[in-house]
Design brief:
alpha/beta; 2,3-Dihydroxybiphenyl 1,2-Dioxygenase, domain 1; 5 helices; four-stranded mixed sheet; about 30% strand; elongated; about 160 residues; 2 domains
Length: about 160
């Protein structure tokens, strides 16, 4: 087990979410599934209580803690993509599986976890600074899913 692991709180679907992430993102997998040894306030003995999983190389634990706490945009996974096809694939997987679109490359999965699907061309434009970054940023601000061709055009001016 990693020394530092991200713990994500789910109502009751941590295992389902972990399996979805493992099917969707490379370098992702589901590890140990731990079940409650006895009844507890929001579940019964034998219910899945925690799931160890990895998302794009990042170790995580999903905790089925009940409905008390919800995900917020204050935490998100940022997935770097190489082209429009990869951007579309991840975006469509999340949004098409009960998720919802947001703005500027952000979307939320059906469990409330936020994702930034970020083409490298956008990150590179922002790192370039100056007018190139300004044009790319202004183009991005009008988008939900990032349009790689539009960002490339904005970079060129």
């Amino acid at each position: 087990m990693a020394k530092n692991t991200i713990c994500l709180w789910y109502d009751k679907d941590a295992e389902t979410a972990a399996r979805f992430y493992a099917e969707t993102f490379p370098q992702s997998s589901v590890g140990a599934v731990h079940r409650a040894p006895t009844d507890y306030p929001s579940g019964k003995a034998g219910d899945v209580i925690t799931v160890e999983f990895t998302v794009a190389g990042v170790p995580c634990i999903g905790l089925n803690g009940g409905p008390t706490f919800k995900q917020t945009e204050a935490f998100s996974f940022q997935i770097a993509t190489d082209d429009q096809q990869e951007t579309d694939r991840y975006w469509n997987a999340i949004v098409g599986n009960g998720g919802q679109e947001s703005a500027c490359g952000w979307c939320k999965d059906k469990w409330g976890v936020s994702w930034q699907i970020t083409p490298r061309v956008l990150t590179e434009a922002m790192a370039a600074g100056g007018d190139e970054a300004k044009r790319a940023f202004e183009a991005m601000m009008k988008m939900k899913k990032i349009d790689v061709a539009a960002i490339e055009a904005a970079r060129r001016g």
